[in-house]
Design brief:
The structure is a homodimer. The first copy, chain A, is about 50% helix and about 10% strand. By secondary structure, chain A is of the alpha/beta class. The radius of gyration of chain A is 21 Å and the shape is globular. The interface between A and B is large, with 104 and 104 residues. Chains A, B: It holds the Pfam family 3HCDH.
Chain lengths: ~300, ~300
Amino acid sequence: MSRVACIGAGTVGRAWAVVFARAGYDVGLFDAIEGEVERTAIPGARRTLELLAENGLLTEDVDTVVARIKSASSIAEAVTGAIFVQESVREDVAVKREVFTEIAAHAPAEAILASSTSAIPGSEFLTGFPHPERALVVHPVNPPSLIPLVELCGTGVTSPETIAAARQLMTDAGMRPIVLKKEIDGFILNRLQFTLVAEALHLVGEGYCTPEDIDAVLTDGLALRWASIGPFEVAHLNAPDGLQGFVDRLGPMMRQLGAAARTDYNWTPEQIASAHAELSQRVPLDTIAERQAWRDRQILALRQMKLREQNV
Amino acid sequence: MSRVACIGAGTVGRAWAVVFARAGYDVGLFDAIEGEVERTAIPGARRTLELLAENGLLTEDVDTVVARIKSASSIAEAVTGAIFVQESVREDVAVKREVFTEIAAHAPAEAILASSTSAIPGSEFLTGFPHPERALVVHPVNPPSLIPLVELCGTGVTSPETIAAARQLMTDAGMRPIVLKKEIDGFILNRLQFTLVAEALHLVGEGYCTPEDIDAVLTDGLALRWASIGPFEVAHLNAPDGLQGFVDRLGPMMRQLGAAARTDYNWTPEQIASAHAELSQRVPLDTIAERQAWRDRQILALRQMKLREQNV
């Protein structure tokens, strides 16, 4: 079977190893911390695979899949013979440049080189090595083993063939890729997320509501729709005449509320401390791990539900 | 059993009738269009109740519940003896003022008077009648028969007792109320929704991605988390040290992406037409009713899933 390399075996890197291993690839997994892959990354990958299996989202048995993930003792060893390399190291442009120099020196010339970066534009570190047309950002949502969306973004010198091949590989691996037509800070997902969060901080900071109210607006309101139909389709389904009819009626309100949003709100450390105190009442710090496990089960139950309904 | 009145029997009013009837109230339902209640509202309520029953979200049989909804031939008839009145007429301040004058003249003095308005501040039409301290906005998400979140907002003269009683009544009826501490345009849900939509229109309008990409970012990304945990809890669960740790690390990025959002983006009619064309490829106008039914089934399946998981 084809071989994929994952460079960096933290939370994101080990989740990528799960994605590629369950898609049938042999995975070379490397981390700069010696022993980290055997000690925590592969056991962590196994737990994720068990969770997927328990939720009916794994077609093979866990041992078969986990056996495909192999510890590599160097970047060179991990990327040798790989058709695809996914980097998930620290968000530090100097570190990423160094890592990609090493990757590019040892990976096959036709391998696709991808970075998980969420915060650094790919053009700042994906062009300083031979054949930069094969490199792009493939930004996952954490963790990609549970959440299918990935954002593909070229650097300006990335070839259309590279983008098309990465998109196909992601689709075949069960992910849901979108392709950005040009680079923008935060890509799409984090821009939408932190635009909403910024207005939420404004509403809480100015005393209109609490963080708990904001969370309820999502969990018991907006996200009940958005989990199945996105915001454009929500509007399109709002009337027999579709999106156009929606905007004809509600365009003025859309413009008004957009203009009224205060996403540049200058929230203070005291406001964050106060929100943290409220959150820590709801979810005490010593129960976070347990609640994270609950969150992951909820995500998988929702994905199962959606798979069932798609087939109705 | 206690009696509730629903004034206005359009999409929102008839969904409210379902909410109150399934909670055991006798419902007096009035619409200004003669015959509308019998012709479309009660049959529509029956279909919604059947859908709830099919999804295990109704504890009684449909006939029993639907029999509680009775057509009233006037506002006076509907509100006589009611403990709670929910108005859902046209979003026109003059019409609402007139309707509330009539409601206030005939409802018991101790009845709570609520408006479903989403666009007009309650202080503009809920104070010009005797005992305005009993009136408030109870803003549902459409349709309240499927989506539990409701936003309660006083007018400034609304009494704390009224707000507390409305909150309790909503909770007892299976809804999830939040209470705004002061009035703001769009309340919380629509501000968050249209802040995100405004940035989405900016990203699409400036050619970074398509409406379909935006929708995928929600359905296969953000909303897989938000359906169970809201944005504050997402951050709180992101690290062992909770929200404070998240902001310590990612605060600068949060500020940067918030400031970079262009929620005042001046989208053009051509951009809307282009988005409408894309949406109409995905969901042709003549399939909207079918897709709406699918959306409703998805919402109910998700609510069922969440009820199951809460009990794990």
